Amino acid sequence: MSEETVTQPAPPGVATRVIVLHPLRPEARQDARTPAARLEEAVGLAHAIALDVAHAEAVKIARPRPATLFGSGAIERLKALIAELGAGLAIVDAPLSPVQQRNLEKAWNCKVIDRTALILEIFGERARTREGRLQVELAHLTYQRSRLVRSWTHLERQRGGMFNIGGPGETQLEIDRRLIGERIIRIKRDLETVRQRRALQRRARKREEQPVVALVGYTNAGKSTLFNRLTRADVFVKNLLFATLDPTMRAVELPSGRRIILSDTVGFISDLPTDLVAAFRATLEEVIDADLIVHVRDIAHPDAEAQREDVYAVLRTLGLDEAIESSLIEALNKIDLLPAEHREAALAQAQRSNRPVVGISALTGEGCPALLDLIDERTGTDRRVLDVRLGHEEGAALAWLYAHGQVLSRRDEADSTLLRVSLGTADAARFERRQAKSH
Q1: CATH topology agreement for domains 209-379 and 383-438
Q2: pLDDT for the residue numbered 3
Q3: Element (H, E) at 58
Q4: What is the reported pTM?
Q5: What is the CATH number of domain 2-121?
Q6: What is the DSSP annotation of 94-129?
Q7: What digits encode the pLDDT tens for the residues 201-242?
Q8: Architecture of domain 383-438
Q9: Contact assessment for residue 219 and residue 196, using Cβ atoms and an 8 Å cutoff
Q10: Which CATH superfamily is domain 209-379 in?
């Protein structure tokens, strides 16, 4: 029997229906999330690409079957249910081997995809830039190549070499594998060009001494809503998993007058396919090289703590263990959805991690000034902001400030120029000595 079951009547005019199945393995007892939460997330993934979920169910598995994952009794029961609902697609919220996928499709007489394939479909629909599409294609091809084993009906066909010269020829499997391999090489080459361009841009920002602050978090935690509020941008926001895929960067002025570059990144999720992490390496390097990471958390979500650990797991995969401890602050988003007493408890619990924490609502703006103050403090520990007045004859000093600092504002007056400049502590002291000598 199932642990959690949700069945919906068929809406009129819908040709293809979907069932979502979350396998409850024995080891799931160690999972921090409830079966209902796991199932809800899987349904959310299906809704993210506008699939019509007719039935959703968490199915207990006493012992996973190598051939089908599910036991024979569950397969027969689900076969009847799929036929009754007229479902054309079954989504299994777990990894499936090629053999398991093929056998389930035969047993249920419908298309079957696993969690990885579903996430790839979402990413494919969300990608807008050429870079995003390349990264999705790379992940998809890597996934597809791993499944070219007895999983396609046409793979047994033989194709002879041209005019029968050069041996018996390649099997269709070998041709498919070779073509996929060649395409992967081309995509990796293109993404390497993207990576190099991003590296040049990062070096340019470092020369301009503009710190980069990366927003990370579980998908649908509110990163893009926060990004829009802080930057006054119009990044696509919707209550969908993976609403944002392509990274976006904007300048933000901090309370001190200094400017930072804020980066909105793709959301993370539990069991994020490793192929996707690898494919999005070029994009995620913005997180790797960030001066500060803001972890945006949906503190009103019942699985907020488990989601936090999932995000940290991805960051550790990227080699950011040290950054988690030294260069990360937590923005507890959606506090407007919590009663006052629960807010205090959530903040107190988060502060026990000994990381800087601030409660915010990206939707209403509550707490956002405090977040900017915290970002200002954390990115400006080795910098000073000077108000400088230079005479028009002090062109060398003016050029020095532009070369060594970040000019936050400038006002040219009749007999002088008034500047506000952000400088590193050492450069600020050097400039003050230089001016003292010249006067």
Answers
A1: no
A2: 46
A3: strand 53-60
A4: 0.73
A5: 3.40.50.11060
A6: S---HHHHHHHHHHHTSEEEEHHHHHHHHHHHH--S
A7: 777 766 666 788 999 999 889 998 999 899 886 655 555 555
A8: 2-Layer Sandwich (3.30)
A9: no
A10: P-loop containing nucleotide triphosphate hydrolases (3.40.50.300)
